[in-house]
Amino acid sequence: MQKDFYLDLSDEVIAICEELLRRAKEWHLPIRRKENFVGFGKIHGFYMFWISRKDEGDYFKARSEYACERLQEIVHYPLIAENKDAILDAAQAIYREYLAHGSEFPRKSRIKTPDPLKGEGAQNSWHGVARHAVSEWRGATEERGQAASGTELLQTAQVFLRNADALLLLLSNEIRSARTKDVWKRYVLTDAETLEQISKDYSLTRERIRQLVKRGNREIADLFVRYCTYEKREIFDTYILPMAQALENASCDLPVFLQSAFADWGERKKKVVLQLLFGEENGAALVEACEKYQKKVTEPAKKQNGIAEKLARLQTMIRYPTAVYADTGEKIGTFVMEKEYTHISKFRKLLEKMQGYLHFVQNPNIVYYSTAKTDHRPSFLLEFENGRRVLVLVLPTLNMAFSYNLKRFWALRDFCKRRGYGYLIVDDREQALWDLECLPVDPALKSALDAILLSKGRILWDDIFEMKKTHDLTNSLIVAYVLQSKLHFVMDPYFCICSFT
Questions:
Q1: Residue 227 and residue 221: Cα distance in Å, rounded?
Q2: 290, 297, 352, 423: least surrounded by Cβ within 10 Å?
């Protein structure tokens, strides 16, 4: 309502007016505002109910029965808080009466042709179809068919989208205020700028821009209701009727159809249009349903893309010391381990996600290196679709620089070269040994570690803790420094960095 209409009204009375406005929009009734008058539902040449302001006071008025006769009993209540329930009940009753008998009302010459889709009154030309579609969707089970043929769905959705887009542009061009029109188009139609960005161009607050967008939404909603009541028949025939026909012809669930139509639209634009076409409550529910459907469709593809990326990265980390392929016919058993360590478990879970792209054996019974104390086996054997076999050794990051592990790495490389395997030495963060060897080490950090090594002959773990106070020092950087400086870790004392002797 206009601000001047609210002048001198109490908060309770303003609340009644706002509730009537809310219900009228929910019922898709045309609203006519004048300086001292607000009418609701002018469809057959007169109003369902209205509020009038005269010298003696403000009144709510309605016809006791919905008919086309002007001379009949009028319900009328003073617009005061005590009459709120009676006023709202009267509005509800007259609306229900119309829904029950709307198609039976006599038509005067001024009444436009009824909706050819449903044979109902002009006011139901679009909203009757929309209500039916929403009702079917609400009552459908989740197992309902997703779509007919892809081509048929696409063609029907394109008709709906093309007319919705053109209608929205037409409606937005009729916003009265040039500033409101520009703000609304920038925020909703382009769906690229934030309230903050637009507010700076107009030297306004974000809240003021939000209010202008809301005003634009309200004007567009009012215009759409007018077009649905045949105030402009050429617009109805050009845009709204094809949309209604496309909606009726859609042979799939409503959210599936709408998401197919509006897939390339921004979220703001989609939200505004769905609420415009299907009402605020249903529009919000459809936005949520479309997002849910889209997530259901894209999630598997997104997951597959993620797996493909991980697989591609894994393959780039592998080294092949020879062009010869290992014998894939050789049966490889497993070696029973008493315990699965955390770093092994983490890498196993990564490989499990890639099943279907590769086959793996955990703890393969392949002895690639033997010492007087033990036999050494890889953590995993990988078999790719291209026929390559790869041995993987997984260790915690710091263990990559132990002197005895360096000997294991050289032995694994030589074994794979002789037998035709690829090999991968990786830590619990999926960093390959050769990536750690190339990791850049800050020159200041390297100089500080070199100074300790020169003065003491070794770097103790206590020295590392002290260094962490002044430098960004991670386990990966420590290993990178050790490998690049041709040093190694020893266990006595604990994690001591020493030179090879």
A1: 10
A2: 352
